[in-house]
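# nightly structure sweep
# worker-07 picked up a monomer target from the shared queue
# config: single-sequence mode, recycle default, output format = structure tokens
# input follows
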Amino acid sequence: MNCFYKWLSVLLCYGSFFIYGQPVITSYSSSNSPLPFNTVRCIAIQNQFKWFGTDDGLARFDGVNWVVYTSENSPLLDDNIRAICIENDTIVWVGTMQGGLYSFDGLNWENYTPTNSGLPDYLVRGIAIDTQNNIWCATSEGIAMFDRVNWYTWDVLSHNLLTNNITSIAIGQQNEKFIGTINGGLNYFSSDNQLTILSIVQSGLPDNSALGIVVDATNHPWFATPAQGLVYDQGFGGPWLRFNMSNSPLPTNGINAIAIDAIERIFMGTDSYGVLIKNGDNWLQYSTENSDLPENHILSIASESNTVKWLGTYNSGVVRLEEYQSELFENTSKSYVYPTSLKAGDLIFISTPVPDKQIFVYNQLGQAINGFYLNDSQSIKTSSSCLPGLYYLKVPSINKIIRFIIE
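# output follows
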């Protein structure tokens, strides 16, 4: 029995688990389709087209027909595709391992490299288009921005970045840019492109690496990290909310890919546990053990609709995952504690008695916090020295971890 189902058996989570019916899984690989390679590192949706970036070519699929672009039949100089971004449903931007950046309008290709443009590196692993139509690129030699005329770059030497190894870029609703790195923290740009560098030391950021970023409806970013699970920025540079193996049902702290759909469900791809879904306070997993998913190593995710997601795998090609509409929405459950917002020194009341008198409290980083004790079987005394912030109260006897805020 794997780690996730051990979590299920004891329910050491806040909120609750819901195990839905099996989704409809359709797998496309090089053995049953024209997909050129079974390692799919990036996916983008363009109207009816699905674009897949593999280690050996770029593929377009409309649900019936396939078109494959490689260095043999297109201007691509490199078949190792690392990033895809759709502009206005008309232009496809493609980042490669060794061939630079491409734009493709369906007929014409244009290539940008360090030799013919201001792009600082041939490796482009992330692409985003901001609200002013500037093209942002994540490269291994820093951040690049193209305003359709000029190129601008940010790197260790020019702007004191902590690393040039950039992984991912997401655009906020007010034209903010949220940029992830490997071992260099986060780089935030304000709407007017003022740079702020955030790190473990500087801001308490849980992980200095981020492999993927999404922005929710409230304009807050979520980060897929390789060592600290799912990280959420409650402000603009903290405080940080972290979901990991110690304070949530996540079976791993390593997340490769992230996507968010219109109903704010967060999908996470992992190395060994398939797809994990955070739906409010409920969690769900699709893996080879409980679905027809062909493998558990997920490299990329794209949301086509609330019911349909596309998953890129490491060895098994691309997967279309379709859920039932009735299963998308979490049930509301009985409130187990009140109030959920209080002042230090106040009492927390529990609706169900705690016969074993076991309670545990964690801060938003998942660290155990002292200063809380059971006053009687149904009330908890909070320490007057508790700092303001978000906390988690775990009560094993009622199988719950409940969020509360000390103001």
